[in-house]
Write a structure and sequence with these properties.
The complex is a heterodimer of chains A (71) and B (189).
Chain A lengths: L4 E4 L15 E4 L18 H7 L13 H4 L2
Antiparallel strand pairs in A: 1-2
Chain B lengths: L18 H12 L4 H11 L5 H29 L4 H6 L3 H7 L24 H25 L3 H36 L2
Helix pairs in contact in B: 1-3, 1-6, 2-3, 2-6, 3-7, 6-7
Classes of the chains: A alpha+beta (71), B mainly alpha (189).
Chain lengths: 71, 189
């Protein structure tokens, strides 16, 4: 699956009071790239669709806490 | 009119008694980018938008009420058996004084809901762009709540709701494309 998480490196000052977070992340989910949805896209089974919140794998963009995965 | 189905759109399960999470979740109940604001915004815009996208606003606006009901269930479950002391410790002392455990349309900071959260410009493109922005903001809010939540069951429901924001954003983007298409067609008449 392609990754929908982008990163950037914010400026770090020697005078910052908190230990720096060197990498910041933001989400760029599927709807930014799909355009008008093409016909006959692949579908999840109904059970999977309910679990994921969408019928379309092309629109499924799950989220995880980036602060946890970074550890 | 509406038909009511007596079940939630997606099951809501809560694993830990954590009233603090209820305080965060209220943002999606009565906040500026919450489900109530979304439902009222879309259902209200239906009347002044080209026919081709009325149905979309109707469907999504209706679904937002189903989401509102899920959030309400989460808040209710998280606070149902709490003591006033627990609520106070969770930062909900002020809420308790005013409302006991009743739900109230307010944001996570306790600011009551206001109609000024909703725009209705009457310009189809302006309104649809606002809807897209609203979906992205609601998606982000779900992300930040998931970051703060340590309840795996609750996070499943929140992930479902977040994914619905993505699908709605996609559909509003398509609605804009439909309206652009209409304009092009007229040129050739």
């Amino acid at each position: 699956m392609p990754t929908f998480r982008r990163t950037y490196k914010p400026f770090v000052s020697p005078f910052d009071p908190c230990p720096p977070l060197r990498v910041r992340t933001y989400e760029t989910p599927a709807q930014l790239f799909l355009g008008f949805q093409p016909e006959n896209l692949k579908q999840f089974t109904l059970k999977e669709a309910l679990k994921h919140g969408t019928l379309w794998p092309a629109l499924y963009t799950p989220y995880t806490n980036p602060y946890e995965t970074k550890k | 009119m509406w038909y009511y189905e007596k079940k939630l759109q997606y099951p809501v399960k809560v694993s830990i008694c954590n009233p603090k999470l209820a305080k965060y979740l209220i943002e999606q109940y009565g906040g500026a980018d919450g489900e109530l604001a979304a439902a009222l915004r879309y259902l209200n815009q239906r009347y002044t938008i080209p026919d081709k996208v009325i149905g979309l606003l109707n469907d999504i606006g209706t679904e937002e009420f189903a989401h509102l009901e899920m959030i309400a269930t989460m808040v209710y479950k998280l606070t149902k058996d709490t003591t006033p002391e627990q609520l106070k410790a969770a930062g909900l002392g002020e809420h308790y004084v005013n409302h006991d455990k009743a739900l109230f349309y307010e944001n996570a900071g306790g600011v009551p809901f206001t109609a000024t959260y909703i725009q209705a410009k009457g310009d189809p493109i302006a309104d649809l762009y606002e809807d897209i922005a609203a979906e992205e903001k609601a998606r982000a809010t779900y992300q930040w709540i998931i970051d703060l939540s340590d309840d795996p069951f609750l996070n499943e429901s929140l992930s479902f709701l977040r994914e619905r924001e993505i699908v709605h954003s996609q559909r509003f983007r398509e609605a804009v494309e439909i309206l652009k298409e209409e304009r092009d067609k007229k040129k050739y008449f």
